[in-house]
């Protein structure tokens, strides 16, 4: 299995998040999670507004819907920045073509991926609807198979855990593609089997069929189809009921080798997780202990137990977002 520590995911990130004081008001952010992640990833910071020539600080900009087209306007100056930003966005897509994920500024008219205000006019008090920023929208459209989040949503434990899982899975898959080996792809599929089962069992069955046809299709064609379904599997976070099903499947590997008291303890712990009294890590780590104790090779190689470096798990909020 490709170890997490052999992988350094590349993340495109809004520069105002920890890298520069380039927000419209001359301020920046200091996000603790981004700092912690720094030792495990490579960041590619960018600021669309500065990189199209805007100063810092600057008058605010907003998205304005004119007819069927979204414009990027600076109301104070009446400057229309739409064409400049669209041209910049196209060049950015080329620059960031090899990234493994994105962390973008929440609600930004340039970088936001959701909850961005799109106004009906540039006048004060105009009504608005919610949408995506000009650059953020293009990123989610172009890289919809990758892990993409905004810094605001990453404060949520469950969202952050899902983001990291998808980030590392897709980064590992990119390495497998570069190796151009059917055997390495099969190993990747095998090692991520339980994790994919927890995320989406139906899509996993489809991937199993694709792998079973690997002898009759070229590697290049195979990975194109495989990546399509892999992205679908990791589109949304797994339900807690699916996690429980995989935990119970793991227990089946060693339950005959432990006492009834030990088995009942595990089942009770899983029940507590089901009732949201303990985090997922509680039954997961207990079961992992038995996997190590009985040296169950198949389970030892499963990314389900460590989908990303454990140092990135924040112990201070590991009980939040238990479901």
Whole-angstrom Rg: 22 Å
* Total DSSP helices: 13
Write down the overall mean pLDDT. Answer: 94
Distance between the termini: 28 Å
Can you walk through the features of this model?
The structure is a single chain. With 323 residues, the protein is of the alpha/beta class. It has two domains: 4-155, no CATH class; 178-323, no CATH class. It contains 13 helices and nine strands. It has helices at residues 32-37, 48-51, 82-95, 134-142, 157-179, 182-191, 193-199, 201-212, 219-233, 240-251, 260-274, 281-293, 297-300; strands at residues 10-14, 42-46, 62-66, 69-74, 79-80, 101-104, 116-119, 128-131, 147-150. The protein has a five-stranded mixed β-sheet with strand order 5-4-3-7-8. Helix 8 runs antiparallel to helix 9 and helix 10 (240-251) packs antiparallel against helix 11 (260-274). Mean pLDDT is 94; it is low at 318-323.
